[in-house]
């Protein structure tokens, strides 16, 4: 295969039989292929054929299949055959970096063909003068993001700009479709379908469990167009293995410290490796441990979302230039940007879902015909099981499935305001159009009308705000914005990504290291390491140490909008972790893990130490069944423990823990606390809970009955800070409260505070308000995993097996080790007050 | 990891200040038995609706919620007098934007109770809702005013919305609180639409002596006296 640059050679096959065929391409396109000794791939021609047959198309292909260029081949051919005035193709990607990357890869072939076609990008970084110009003088092909599409659609000239458009190309649709950004995009597409009924939509997606769902998604805005499904199977199967370390796999923990020497050896033996971890803190820890042992000074870099953009760009550039041997990274590198040659992917810690694993493996080697290589590195014994399940799933090409949820009402509110900014809004027509956005296909007219009311005057039962209305109904029955400022407000608020309030982290010289100065201002002007969540930083004490940007730092102070840290020479971080990017175990993998556990004949693939552990569990207690729930009880250190093994992920277990302790408290079993892991839940009580189950005073079936998801859940939700955070997101997206803008707005914490207060008031006085409905839907889905818990409770109904033990079981060891290990941030905690008051009482009474 | 703690119940806490005994309430009010009076500060009525003019339609229920809180406290304590220590309204115009049922409730309050509105920086003007409007109140040797002022002692004031972040063994919680020293007691803000400011903020420095600082933090089911050594910033 002739190779010039990787991108192109991988995107097109070598021409098998020179000059013998034209593949139905226009001459300049065909000649371009021939001049390079390439041939278009079959799926690229299939996409072209679909387009020529007047169909929309969905291309499902693994990473590296020349997917992006398959999306554009129909546009290139059409432009080569028929001159076109105005915007021809709109390309939408989930990442602005991806839009820029793809534009670069498209401009070269177009120039080499001598094709008259202008390609431009439009992202948040595009200068406003150019964005302005693009609205009146658009390129032929415009690369942009869902947010920019929403902005363009909110302008008056949208009908003119998009009226003659031929194609929309949606890249990485699997990453967008089921999110709120997907909702926004679907609404934008529905509007495009109205402005331009001739539109064809092409979508590119990685392999997914339910391609027919994506097909319906792209078919919705232009129902008269058939959708062709084009599937590209990919070349060789990936080669997957699990790290076989001579060291013991630990019982608990997520850092895989034991494997660091092995990892270094593997890095040494390969070209460039990507080391994927699941959280930023794991990335930090691993990066540091690698460097501690990196005697050969192999160039190993760190890449995660909290790092300073410039630093990330540097790492990316070094990657592309082939200067790095390894990068420790998080999901920021999941999506399809081409950073260069990757020989090996290592997944540290269990991958949590087979789809994510397949995506990550796809990063190794973008050459289709050679197998990708990946090594999974379990961080603890349970993860060994999970890794085995993931490998099996990946080898079968099995995908996790995520259930689609109805479109967000907050996103709809934002969109409706945008549409009213563009043109007076006819409610009937807008409703019809909204139904053509796939996530909203079942939206009731009543709910839709309530969203309009919300946008107009807040949607309260009281008509308190009529005179300040944002939208007014005019004599002709249409809704118009009441003032041009409303459009300005809208444009500042566009988008569905609401960040946690972040602070810049700046490295300064420590007070303690400054000679002669023990007080006075901390030295300013150090370099910025990146950004971190304010709620984490605001709870640190000066001197607290943690890992950030690959360095051990000590917290100094928060000044204005920056957190000052200094270099620390301490070896162990005092604060073990910070949040961000934890994934729950996918249902699909959880099922496989349960199946493996229940069936000892399947253990032969497991390492000896894990097999011994499970055998021991079988001998002294029971193995968790495939469909049943094992509950163990035992006394330990004057407390009584109850451990259950639902394997439903930490979030679902935390919710379960909150609800069970509530019930146990009501049953006077005196629960003292609980801890949740990915696999199990441990609750400890002051009374002998095992005895109470045995004697029948407590019933396990009643304890775990599904009705806990009713009243108990409602009660807990009221107090839950998760609910408040979800509300804040809905309030911002829907435009109820304003988004923070750098240097302009109040600080993030004040905004959180005020949204909490709004939540409280609304909860008490209008709990059925449209935004409360939106919040409950989101909370049930994203944060609490309630649906999953519901399925679990249903599954185990009358299948709960109680095992009363004298002491801790082998399987319980990992979750017991979690107790007291990680502090939790941001929760209101009454026990802190109790302790503080007790201490004061002791002081006061002289004890 | 999330862990749950079991609640404990205790007897109501008393607060002695300026030679008088008070009962701090979970609502943030202070009941003064010898005067049979309820003290509240910073109601900030009509705060949410004040955003409407910039087309931010926050739920117009905060006034109703704050008044309902007040009604509960009045019923529970059996107080016959109310001293509202300033910023009763989020802005002077608030007295005109009251929704009908909120206005009715305020009217019935001032008819039934001996009601004093002390002026605050948010609501400096006197109004005609009923009750008495004044700048300061002197009573039983105490000065009741909106802003803490080092010239008066002993003084009870509001204005600063004190809150305490308490940290023990690496875990922390932030709660509104009563903060006082020998000379001054600063009440937490009462309105449901108000936030709070950490007592370690420099704003408290001129008016509360840090070495004598005492904190009564508002918990879920009771008031907790907390040692100042557990206070942290943030």
Describe the structure.
The complex is a heterodimer of chains A (847) and B (234). With 847 residues, chain A is α/β, with parallel strands linked by helices. Chain A has 5 domains: 226 residues, P-loop containing nucleotide triphosphate hydrolases (Rossmann fold, 3-Layer(aba) Sandwich); 158 residues, P-loop containing nucleotide triphosphate hydrolases (Rossmann fold, 3-Layer(aba) Sandwich), CATH 3.40.50.300; 150 residues, no CATH class; 66 residues, no CATH class; 146 residues, no CATH class. In chain A, strands 5-6-4-7-8-3-9 form a 7-stranded parallel β-sheet, with helices on both faces. A 6-stranded parallel β-sheet of chain A has the order 10-15-14-11-13-12, with helices on both faces. In chain A, a hairpin with a 2-residue loop joins strand 23 and strand 24. The longest helix of chain A has 18 residues. The N terminus of chain A is likely disordered. Chain B is α/β, with parallel strands linked by helices. Chain B has one domain: 4-Layer Sandwich (Purple Acid Phosphatase, chain A, domain 2), CATH 3.60.21. Chain B contains 3 helices and 17 strands. In chain B, the strands form 2 sheets. In chain B, strands 8, 9, 10, 11, 12, 13, 14, 15, 16 and 17 form a 10-stranded mixed β-sheet that branches. Chain B has a 7-stranded mixed β-sheet with strand order 1-2-3-4-5-6-7, with helices on one face. At the A-B interface, helix 20, helix 24, strand 25, helix 29 and helix 33 of A face helix 1, strand 11, strand 12 and strand 16 of B.
